């Protein structure tokens, strides 16, 4: 019994350590997203540059999470729910790494947009979208730590609002482009920025779905709710 | 010795079975990409619809790969290189699932583009881009099965050509948009299509990097070669 107890707590201790890494990664990604959006709005080149360079730390954390999870599996031989948890941690790390890439891309485009005539209201709208998505990411990770399927389901539903914000932006940028061809290049970059932020929202949803799978044993049924109308209606 | 032999071959047999699933998934994704591009070019609605619906089979295969890998880890307790291989299989499945999503998105946009005035030469250029990327994906998976780090490195380098093709398309679509605002909506969809295909190329590179990691023990040093100039220069 003592041995079993010992093995169990060693696994739990290791798991807590990788979970702490995941939360650190999540914090970095949220900050990168928020900083990149702020850099776009205030045209702060130094901040954009900082986000660009900071992505390496996120990538390095993903590699550490992967290595640590592999070590944990080999050393502790988890099965059933414990193994599922470790594999979920690896999936979350991948989702966060991709999200970090999107924040880095936003920072790059913020620098390019600084050299173009500004589109009225665009940077503010992008910042609001980024804030919403940052909250989704935060809640998805909190849902993971608390194994809270209810909060995870809430994230899934709120991603619909993000999709709607994106659709509204898509139409607005299109209007600016049609009104004046000189807006086209800037609007193209803004489009990609909006789409990339919307994709971070999809990654938050992926994390939320993993939490639901982890706690209930089944993935949410059917397709995830999806409201990107730009490929449906327009 | 006999027992060890038995355990080893049981692992190998299981591994072969998930590798077969990965190759099947890869085949479906390559076909989806190629069919979606063909549907765009020939305005074949039925084919586009088939790609759209076919994505569910790719998603289901990813879930099977994940379940099978988890079973394999729990049952066989692989360590070191064997464990790394199983975890790599799961990463490849994720990359293929995302690639399938991009092909599905292409198919959806092909349907939308059918209702807009065509952009001369665009569909052909998209098809060529899709073919190049399909080959990258195929070679990345072949490199995985053969554990061929040389072929994997070749995939990494050839992704640069894909990036260059994408950059050329980006500029071309921009010109069409500036020339005539009536082209804007169609060119926006074509832009997203091109970007999504370029992203499938990135996933092929991710698979190639996993193969290099698997065979050499280290990830390729530094950033992957990257030549998306649309956020750098323009």
UniProtKB/TrEMBL annotation, chains A, B:
Coiled-coil parts of chain: none
Gene3D superfamilies assigned: Phosphate transport system protein phou homolog 2, domain 2
UniProt keyword Hydrolase present: no
One CC-aspect GO term: cytoplasm
Signal peptide limits: none
Cell compartments where the protein resides: Cytoplasm
Domain of life: Bacteria
Biological process according to GO: intracellular phosphate ion homeostasis; negative regulation of phosphate metabolic process; phosphate ion transport
Chain ranges of the PhoU domain: 22-109, 126-211
Family annotation (InterPro entries): PhoU, PhoU-like_sf, PhoU_dom
Pfam families assigned to the protein according to its UniProt record, in alphabetical order: PhoU
Keywords: Cytoplasm, Phosphate transport, Transport
Similarity section: Belongs to the PhoU family.
Subunit comment: Homodimer.
Protein name: Phosphate-specific transport system accessory protein PhoU
Name of the gene: phoU
């Amino acid at each position: 019994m003592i041995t079993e107890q010992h093995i169990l707590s060693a696994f739990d201790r290791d798991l807590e350590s990788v979970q702490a890494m995941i939360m650190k990664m999540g914090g970095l990604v949220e900050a990168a997203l928020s900083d990149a959006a702020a850099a776009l709005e205030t045209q702060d080149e130094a901040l954009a540059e900082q986000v660009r360079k900071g992505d390496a730390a996120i990538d390095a954390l993903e590699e550490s999470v992967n290595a640590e999870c592999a070590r944990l599996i080999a050393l502790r031989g988890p099965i059933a729910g414990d193994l599922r948890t470790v594999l979920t941690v690896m999936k979350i790390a991948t989702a966060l790494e991709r999200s970090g890439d999107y924040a880095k891309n936003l920072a790059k485009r913020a620098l390019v947009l600084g050299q173009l005539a500004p589109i009225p209201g665009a940077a503010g709208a992008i910042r609001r979208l980024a804030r919403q998505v940052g909250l989704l990411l935060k809640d998805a990770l909190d849902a993971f730590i608390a194994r809270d399927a209810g909060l995870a389901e809430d994230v899934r539903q709120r991603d619909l609002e993000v999709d709607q914000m994106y659709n509204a932006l898509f139409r607005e940028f299109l209007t600016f482009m049609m009104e004046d061809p000189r807006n086209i290049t800037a609007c193209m970059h803004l489009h990609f920025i909006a789409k990339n932020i919307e994709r971070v929202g999809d990654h938050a949803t992926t994390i939320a779905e993993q939490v639901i799978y982890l706690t209930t044993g089944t993935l949410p049924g059917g397709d995830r709710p999806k409201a990107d109308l730009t490929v449906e209606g327009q």
